[in-house]
Amino acid sequence: MQSSSRTSILQGLAAAVPIWIGYIAVGIPFGVLAAKAGLSPLQIALMSVIVFAGSSQFIAVSMMASGASILPIIITTLFVNLRHLLMSTTLALHLRGASRGVLSLFAYGVTDESFAVNLTRFMNGDWDIKRSLVVNHTTNVVWIASTIAGGYLGEIIPEGAFGIDYALTAMFISLLVLQLKNALILITTILSGFLSVIFSLLLPGAWNIVISSMLAASLGVAILAVFQRKRTGASL
Predict the structure, then answer these.
(1) pLDDT one-digit tens code per residue, 129-188
(2) Distance between CA atoms of residues 85 and 211, nearest Å
(3) How far is 234 from 236, CA to CA, in rounded Å?
(4) Maximum Cα interatomic distance, the chain, rounded to a whole number of Å
(5) CA-to-CA distance for 64 and 57, rounded, in angstroms?
(6) Domain containing 129: what range?
């Protein structure tokens, strides 16, 4: 029994190592940017513990730095994190029989990266919740530690040094480029950017981000539904 538990831990750790590397590479820059936005290392740590969602943390820090109020930040990060519902629903199929306490612990650690790693292994049939918990929570610890380290570095690095002021913009451009997989996503992206500029001239704070994202995404879904109906009709 003890040998089996040790094996599960080791297999979970082995699966988590690539995620650790990625989190260190992203977590430290996030901590630096958060420090530049005015957050202390303690606040950065609390944000990473409570939120534990890299993309929404970057967005929140960006909006804080631009002077956005709390409500637009909450709404924006909520919509960004809605994908976690889909990920959790997919993983739930492989977690039948687990107690609510264990499921709650598991759900806290679900991220894009841990989802991909755990789902692949669940589908291969050689994975269980013990191994997946190791993946989820060791990566959580690495993320928190990396962001805190970045927070302390942010207090040392001079303002504007190493192009750090552009790092957040560059990060989001890189994330955006990776998502441009078809024409519909490209159209939705361009429309979102266009609407954001228009609304920024009309609305205070960062509401332009929330409204433009919702409108562009809704239009993208509508266009996709139309094409799917046409495709279904053509096949009939």
Answers:
(1) 899 999 999 999 999 999 999 999 887 877 666 666 666 566 567 656 766 777 877 888
(2) 21
(3) 5
(4) 65
(5) 10
(6) 2-162
Pull the structure tokens for residue 12: 């979970």
Six-digit token string for 153: 């570095």
In this prediction, residue 146 carries a pLDDT of 93
Nearest to 48 by CA among 70, 23, 25, 72: 23
Is 169 contained in some domain?
A: no
3 state DSSP class of 75: helix
Please give the angle made by the CA atoms of 215, 217 and 218, to the nearest 5 degrees.
Answer: 65
Query: Distance between CA 159 and CA 2 in Å, rounded?
Result: 52
15-72: per-residue pLDDT in tens? 899 889 888 888 888 898 888 888 999 999 999 999 888 888 888 888 888 788 888 8
Q: Hey, what are 159's tokens?
A: 């303002």
Same domain for 83 and 128, yes or no, is yes
Q: Does residue 168 fall inside a structural domain?
A: no
